[in-house]
Amino acid sequence: MGSYIIKKSDSGKYHFNLHAKNKEIILTSQMYKARNGALKGIRSVKANAPVAPIEDLTLEKPVEQKNPKFQIYLGKDEKYYFRLIAANGQPIGRSEGYNGKPACKNGIQSVVNNADSEIVKATEKE
Fold first, then answer.
1. Is the pLDDT of residue 123 over 80?
2. Cα–Cα distance measured from residue 122 to residue 107, given in angstroms and rounded to the nearest whole number
3. What is the model's pLDDT at position 124?
4. Are strands 14-19 and 25-29 parallel, antiparallel or unpaired?
5. d(CA 58, CA 26)
6. Residue 30: which residues within 8 A CB-CB, separation 6 or more?
7. What pLDDT is recorded for position 126?
8. What is the DSSP letter of 77?
């Protein structure tokens, strides 16, 4: 299993990273005003990732999926990214950039596989 790490930024806000077993970051959350918000975000990943279908926005005619969902999109840098959207429509987290769509889909599967990980460390600053 991977791990969740909550971090506090210099601005005083919190976010979390979900790490795969190999310690690679596979999902980075949005910023939260309080640590409790980051903990709620982690619970949301655990609840939503295992049941979220993929909505591929890179297709000519994307098939819209209901929330929760993963969305694959192409960034300005021409890399593939995904974001996890909660059941309430709010973004939970996003990925790093991938050079190809298959690697991006592997990243989504890694989030699904590691969603039930534990919080192993919380730091005050990045």
1. no
2. 23
3. 56
4. antiparallel
5. 20
6. 15, 41, 91, 92, 93
7. 44
8. T
52: nearest Cα among 69, 73, 71: 69
The two tokens of residue 73 are: 């999109």
| 50 sits in which H/E element | none
> Which residue ranges form the domains of the chain, and what is each CATH number?
3-123 (2.30.29.80)
pTM of the predicted model over 0.70: yes
d(CA 66, CA 71): 11
Contacts of 79 (CB under 8 A, 6+ apart): 97, 98, 99
- Using an 8 Å Cβ cutoff, are 17 and 28 in contact? yes
Chain mean pLDDT for the chain = 94
By the 8 A CB rule, do 98 and 104 touch?
yes
